[in-house]
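Predict the structure of Protein-methionine-sulfoxide reductase catalytic subunit MsrP.
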Amino acid sequence: MLIRIPASGECRESEVTPEPAYLSRRQVLSGAALSGVAIAMPSLVNASERYPGVTAATAPKWFADKLANTRWQAAVPDGEAITPFTDATQYNNFYEFGPNKGDPARHASALKVEPWTVLVDGEVDRPGRYSLEDLFSEGRLEERIYRLRCVEAWSMVIPWLGFPLADLVRKIQPHSSAKFVRFETAYRPEEMRGTRSGFALIDWPYVEGLRMDEAMHPLTLLAVGMYGRSLPNQNGAPLRLVVPWKYGFKSIKSIVRISFVRDQPATTWQSMAPQEYGFYANVNPKVSHPRWSQARERRLPGSLFSPNLRDTQPFNGYAEQVAGLYSPMDLHKDY
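Done. Here is the predicted structure for Protein-methionine-sulfoxide reductase catalytic subunit MsrP.
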């Protein structure tokens, strides 16, 4: 069974899969997974106690204060092992810092993430420029351990820390005319060396979007941390989107603007190559990329002689929760 994140007002449930290598001396009550009752985990004194190999990090006071009251939901789908921190932070796509997988880890330290504000605009009652502390002043951090599936056919399992996007939407109070949410990444050429390259084909800033019902879905997360600590710069600090049933390029990083709009936004990869990257980008093993199959994926870590291949699951394994969003659609056409 997959973790079920209930809608606001429902009882919260989670199935907890013990992972001794990652929980590091913490014990999970044996009956909790069967009872469906979420376990209240103690706050972390040091992230490495829970996730070995995690690099220590400083964090703003508001994050540290929230961490003490985090709702720890250590639920790994189907008992899958969490990807080691070093793999999750050293193998990334973040083209603002370069085209190679190791470029973000090498160059993202140049990004200044404090102070950070997000412009909220469009069809809303409460537009404005918000600090992260203001955006999430009323919320409680939650840990969500999700599969991450890249359109390039590699995958990971990552423990995120964040807030349901739906909570922010309710706080901002969009008008009924707002049918989509548009997201925009920071564009700072002086700090993001990849945007200065004359060979880059991307029309900066990077843009992504969701339909309103996707944004309001309980699985959709605004992440501010991972592995029990604040987000590393290369993983989208200080604020990124996580939509676990979609290909990774939908989970936009280092967000500086959230707009509530009437019409479907023109997103970056769809605008560049619409025949390859659709607006919905739902993980679908039956719809191949024009240059490779999506039927299988390579789970990291792996090696040349042990590539750790596995079958791709529809909606990345979250079909039970999200397939209903697309029931009237042709997912071969609306890919």
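Residues 165-172 form the longest helix (8 residues).
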